[in-house]
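Handoff note, outgoing to incoming analyst
You'll be picking up this chain. Sequence as last confirmed:
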Amino acid sequence: MKQLRKYTIFAGQSIITSAPSLISTVLGSCVSVCLLDKETGVAGLNHFLLPGIPSDESTNLNRGLTSTAMLVRSMLNRNINVNTLEAKIFGGCNSLYQNDIFKVGERNIAIALAVLKSFDVRVVAKHVGGSLGRKIIFNTATGRVRVELLTKTATEVNEEIDKGFGY
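Most recent structure output, in case you need it:
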């Protein structure tokens, strides 16, 4: 069996590859869109922090509007047929604050879905929202995405750290 390349993607980054790969990232309120064209084997993944707004003309890949549109356009520029392109969406949790008035995770999910819809890209799966972060590993050879829920919230981790210092 052919060895899979391994990549780790951080916020504000994206990747497109035709080589069979394992692409991983860790998400809280951030969102990642995984794209795969099963006919050609070309796959892509992004990781963005904030949704962005239509009037923002920046090329900042930390913004979902820009990042997701750029990812889809880059795939289509590789002669991918939009009808064979599949998307999976992950992340968008509310892990930092119980009553997040900014609803960053929800807005990130919504912008990813809106951009994909604008390009007529079919969403075949999503694991989004909730109160726990996720680590995802995208196997571009199979199209499968393994999701590992991060079982402690930031508040729980900080409480354990505080106890450790005797506060």
